[in-house]
Amino acid sequence: MANVRLDKINRVYNNVTAIEDISFEVPDGEFWVLLGPSGCGKSTILRTIAGLETASSGNLYINNRLMNEVPARQRDVAMVFQNYALYPHMTVAENLAFGLKMRQVQPQMMQEQIHKVARSLSIDHLLNRKPKQLSGGQQQRVALGRAIVREPQVFLLDEPLSNLDAQLRDDTRAELKKLHQRLKITTIYVTHDQTEAMTLADKIVVLDQGKIQQIGEPQTVYAHPNNQMVATFLGNPPMNILPVTYANSIFWIGNQSFNCPIELQEKLSPTDKQSLNLGIRPEHINLVTSDYNQENIQPNRQKSNQVLLSVEVDVIEPLGRETLVRANLVLSNASQFSQTLIQFQTPVQISLKPGDRISITLDLNYAVIFDPNTRKQVGY
Fold it and tell me: Is 197 helix (H, G, I), strand (E, B) or coil?
């Protein structure tokens, strides 16, 4: 096992910067996830660590050893690709054994390791089959097994679950987590799936346009995003971003207004007429029903920090255990805000339809404020 450190890594292709000033260190034995939209540079970082790409500048260290000039085969890392990359003419056993043969491991020891890993991944009954005889999930486990059997210093996984169906992806994700808990091998995992990132990672590295946006523990990144990109990328449904104007201790959204909590005023020190973006996650929004009781909403929070807004229902999306509501803020004489969308969830027993005008409460104890120009969080 080993730590992995990137120090100001850049990669430029034909004058186009793919990744810029990438610096972070993955401690020995931890599971880190590189998360971001397609084209943000996740796979380029992973391939640079593996030695399949060469950094244009910067330094890469594995186990505190400079790796810039070390070829891929000597880096002692194992990479699992999105398309599995199994040898189609080889059996499962032969695929698992390939890396060991390259290392000239003794045949008896090789067989012991193959069977041990195959049992741990529940593929020991598939050893004599070829990849075309396997399901997608079985092929994925073989690809993981081929990496594990080598006992590398570092695992690199490039969207390994993206080709699996939803149920199998969930099952395999849980198996991956258990596997890491058992092996404790330093792992760097690339995905655009936030669920994978939140459930697997010790730390998440959020990327966009080749740059790091935020690094932190999953719950910290979720609750305290550095900027609007992180806020809206992490979370399903994403964080709502509402344009507000501050004036005399009051937030205005078009013609609707509510008091700005003292805590926010002290943290933000806003000026009159200042425009801000207020971020609020759907789980911190509640529907006000006919039997609305102030005492029953967030009783452990200050009621003064829960504010009312009027919205008009636009789309209803039943999700089984809850209903996702997409609504527009009811704003008159404020055309620039006329399309302000707000999303929240309601219990399935509550019946709503498009066009309904309803009231909702926002718990400002969980509000995040962004500068509309820089899109960075203010006062954090």
Answer: helix
The mean per-residue pLDDT over the stretch 241-252 comes to: 93
Beta sheet of 285-288, edge-to-edge order: 285-288, 357-363, 306-318, 322-329, 341-347
Q: Where residue 161 falls among pLDDT bands split at 50, 70, 90?
A: confident
Looking at the fold, whether 104 and 246 belong to one and the same domain comes out as: no
Q: How many domains does the chain have?
A: 2
pLDDT digits (tens, 9 = 90+) for 40-83: 999 999 999 999 999 999 999 999 999 999 999 899 999 988 77
Alpha helices in 81-227 (DSSP H): 92-102, 107-120, 136-148, 166-183, 194-200, 218-223
How far, in Å, CA of 246 to CA of 274, rounded?
A: 5
Residue 376 lies in a domain: no
For residue 147, the model assigns a pLDDT of: 87
Choose one of 200, 225, 250: the last residue of a domain: 225
If DSSP codes are grouped into helix, strand and coil, which group holds residue 80? Answer: strand
98 exposure class (CB count in 10 Å sphere: 0-12, 13-18, 19+)? middle
pTM of the model: 0.87
Instruction: Clarify whether residues 8 and 71 are in a common domain.
Output: yes
CA separation for the pair 292, 296 (Å, rounded): 8
Identify whether residues 190 and 247 lie together within a single domain.
Answer: no
- The stretch 95-122 carries a mean pLDDT of 88
> Are both 141 and 274 inside the same structural domain?
no
Residues 6+ apart with CB under 8 A from 336: none
284: CATH: 2.40.50.140
Q: How far is CA 111 from CA 21, 100, 141, 198, 204, in A?
A: 44, 10, 18, 36, 37
Long-range contacts of 165-168 (CB under 8 A, 24+ apart): 165/136, 168/136, 168/137
22 contacts: CB under 8 Å, gap ≥ 6: 6, 8, 9, 10, 41, 45, 58, 211, 212
Query: Considering the domain boundaries, does residue 230 fall inside one?
Result: no
Q: How confident is the model at residue 120 (pLDDT cuts 50, 70, 90)?
A: confident
CA pair distance 298, 91, nearest whole angstrom: 58
